[in-house]
Amino acid sequence: MKILTFSAMLLAAFFGIFQSTHSQQPAPAVTPAPAQPVDVTCFESRKGASEVVKRELSVGVPNVKCSPKTGAVLWWSDPFDGTVPMGDMPQMDRIPSGKAVVKPRSEKLALLPSCGIACHNGVGPKFIPPTLPTSKKPTPIPTMAAMVPDLQNLQHGRERIWCLDCHHTTQRNKLVDNFGDPISIDQPQLLCGKCHGDRLRDWRDGIHGKRIGEWASAGKKRWFTCTECHNPHNVQDGARNRGFVQLAPESPPQIPKGMKDASWEKTPGVPH
Known about the structure:
Low-confidence stretches: none
């Protein structure tokens, strides 16, 4: 009996020493989960209408460089990323096929599917009129005013035009030309040219608007369309009542290292 008791005491003492030693060992280190990268977004031409997410096209080559001051795109590594052929344009036959491209915006317009499918197709909810308006006097619709606040004070045309002068009567997710035919939302220049023929001519000739791409006159270029720079519902820019929303200017470029001023820019590059 004494031998059994001694054995039990010895076993208990050994177990206590083992447990104490084991408890003193440090807990295994927990590797923290890697931080998720935060998407960097900047706009190409008009804030709120032409955002692009910064990403890598190849290792170490981002698709865009964003301005830390204004949030605008400063540089494109591939000016044709995400573009499609412009499509037929009057008096632009001289441009070789595929040399004029645009970036479609219809896929970024969240309300566009609802305009022509969910609401204005004649089979939507009961509160939506199944027939077209009988006059051109706009009727306040709280739902529309909430979705598109600019419509509450539509300044385009200075109260001489209304919604269906620009939007197709039955295909509300499309625009309309002077013949009543639909225009893709990705070709707004065909709509704007109905009234702004002089601006359309300048845009077509490269005087108005923006191009990026190849320098050669017959090279491939991305053309920025009207609504990428202009908000068609507020072209008078509110209280300013003129032009479109002004963009914050970028900081002036730095003088090259080793030069005390920029007087060298006054020297003609080609002697006369």
